[in-house]
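The passage that follows is intended for readers who have already worked through the single-chain material. We present the inputs for a multi-component assembly, then the predicted structure in tokenized form, and finally a short commentary. You are encouraged to pause after the input and sketch how you expect the pieces to fit together before reading on.
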Amino acid sequence: MKRLAAIAALASIATATACGSTGQEDAGQGGIYTTIDGSKQINASAPINPFNPVGSVFDGYNGMALAWPKNDPIDPNQFYPAIARSWTITPDESEAVIHLQPNARWSDGKPVTSEDVRVSIGLAYTQGGTAYALDPKAAGAAATIQVVDPTTIRITQGANKSNTFLSNLLSTVVVPAHVYGSLLPRDFWHTLKVAQDGKGAPAERAKTEITGLADKVIAFAPRHDVSAGPFVLERVNPGAALLRRNPYFYDGKLIGPDKVELLNYSGNQQIWNYLIAGKLDNAPFTSVPSAVLDRIRAVRGNKVIKGFSPVSTSLAFNQARKPYDNVHVRRALAYLIDRAQVTKIASPEGGTPSLTTSGIHAEAAKVWLGAEFNGLDPYRLDPAKAAAELKAAGMTRRGNKWALPDGRPWKVEIHVPASFSDWISAAKSITSQLNDHGIDATVVTAADYTLYLSELAAGKYDVGFWLMGLGPSPYNIFQRLYGQANGWQMFGGRLEHVAPGTEGNWMGGPETVTVSGTKVDPGALTSRLNFAPPAEQKQIVGTLAKVSNEQLPVIQLWDYVNTQFVNTSRYTGFPPDDSQALRLSSGVWMQLGMIRKRQA
Amino acid sequence: MTKAVRERPRGAALARRVAGHVVRGLVMIWVVATISFVIIREIPGDPVQGMYESLLQKGMSPDQAERATAVLYGFLPTGSLWDQYVGYMGSLLHLDLGRSLSTPGVKVTSLIGSAAQWTVLPVLAGTLLSFLLGVTMGVYAAIKRSGKLGDLLALSGSLLHGIPVYVIGLLLVAIFTTLWPILPSGGPVDVAFVPGFNPGYIGSLIHHAVLPVVTYTLASYGGWILAMKSNVVAVLGDDFILAAELRGLKRGIVFRYLARNAILPLFTILALSIGMLFGGSIFIEEIFNYPGLGLLLVNSISTRDYALMGGTFLVITVGIVVANIVADLLYTAIDPRVRSGEAS
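Having made your guess, compare it with the prediction:
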């Protein structure tokens, strides 16, 4: 007891001695803007390093790219300026010249120069992919990087040109050379040249040397944040990250808040609680039950902004398994699913029922296809057509149930990951509808998404949910339907189609299909989308949309709507509905001059 | 002389006992590490593909997602299972648990260390609070078992014991963070405070810990009160209590006899509970966004972070093995019957 009293007394004394400061810093007149980074959870153990996927660098706040992508439905090369004030590209997309913001400075006062961009590109090579692939045959790989002057840099594209070269270039994350430069060996650029232009063993050695740097780059942990963005990281704990204004930001006058607090979350429930408590100035959309949504809307200042999101959800078939190898069966199911009903149940706020299956989000499809879009079969609910399609597939009706052509019972198992509540709701709605029409259907859940993907890829499922329409790049859109998941893969720069059930080919579709009397290879056309000029792209998109509509490798269920929650009690000037900035972070909105402190 | 002779065999027996425990504990740790190593490697799922698709789900473009995940393939274990196992055991001997895949480039030991601090506070505080509360109330419930107070206490124990921890947590969140918002709903501390020994930061730590600790206390309280009540009732019927009462011993002394004998089995459970705290409390950490070991384990499983999963399982195993040894030694210290049995 005496010991306990002594401990208590000591604690009181210690607390009293520490009373000189409350430990809380003044937020200033601009206040603290509270939000959530929807792209990643906060990880206080991760380094302040944008090359680390969970690093404490947040896009638009203390993380800066050359430019920020606009939410254009069809053009992936539309960007807002960021570290790059402007850029030009030759008509054949062989050379891009990037002009940096002349007043851009790092948070330690040093200027942002072309050398910073060059070092950032060097570091990006160690990570691989897109514009900075070591394989010179890779589509859209950069060939030369030349510093023209302290604020101008010229980058050329290799021989295998891609129409997303500019887009990938402008997405380059920029880091300070005086912090990260030491990660690149002195002879790095020579090694890169050997890796790209050399042949045989020396080239392979050089590639290995560069990719061998990846671990070092990803694990690099600067002691302090040095940011060229409007904010700089002050501190981070497992619950939140606090960023303060960067006094050297090139457009500081546009930035309203003095600080930004990014809250962490371990589940949607926390985001709902924050929204109901009116704590968040902005939050990305999360699946919300209607009752919770009503409570969120009822909070003073809470509003919902909506816009285009180039993503759709679909029900995908494993065409290597019977009876889904038969297009009539797939069509029959399309005629039996009431997509409006499914969307109303699964994603009433975050989605709109797909008008048809084209492989593309309807808004983008209308722009790509024009009047052709109306020519696609909308697959409206039509049990009579469905019955005709099932009969055409040889299916038979036994009592009040449909059976396989050989008379065995037909059981449709729809697979979904257990953690996706919207997909589960959709699957339940679909099975209920199919059961009503005499098709024995059940929902089967996988324990988690990683397991789901692995079993899907192994071809264990007949029917499962699949994210698609990942625009705006048409190549990315159709890659989801006619890419690796459906058997098309690049081997040594050559496109090949592998057998169903191998190399991740779980969709198991045929290599060629006949559409409107013409034989087409959808995978080859998709691959061509990477290189094709705009007119040819349009033509290919038209063909692939028709292929998707007629062949139905998937049934497009709903197109996502980008939904953002904002609270206007403390800040105003949020982007309007359908703004092209809507998919970007609040940090970018601030850079565009959008967020202002509400005047009392 | 006689005393020295008597102490030597007792000391030697204790040393033998401890050595036996340590050897058995090390074997147990090796067995669990080996089994968990094999099981973890057999869990289906490509972690990089999983992360790539998750990023797409979060609205990232395929190009961005590819940039963010391509490099992670370098963090996946390579070579045959046996080679991996030999490498793993070699690293383990150097207390190196490897590097994480979900927090690439960061050592697993560092992640576990950082999560452990957030587990220890609520779970340890909750365990001790519920133990003290449960044990005290358990004695009263037993003594007053024929009265209304006894019934009420027993009922509160049964009720709370029957409610799952996540229900208690969600109820408390609903009441104290949205209905009557006086407590924070998530995170371990307000980031606005400068970390350190200052009242603001410490106050914020306590403020954030209130709900997790209360949830944990309420969820475990039922078990303690019911166990203690049952033990006390059993001891009350023992002859030595009757003898003590007949000898006219003071009430306080009888109470001490009673409590000391009834609490013995609970000490073992307490020691094991403290060992289990390294497993964290998944529901509490999830509900309150308290980034402890439980949440770390769940995340490591969903991201197929082999090194982190293995490391977390190992820490839990070590915690339980050590707690077992401590419980056994504690029992020896507090129960004279065990001591005398050891000496003879």
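Commentary: The longest helix of chain B spans residues 2-42. Chain B has two domains: 11-93, 117-304+320-339. How closely did your sketch match?
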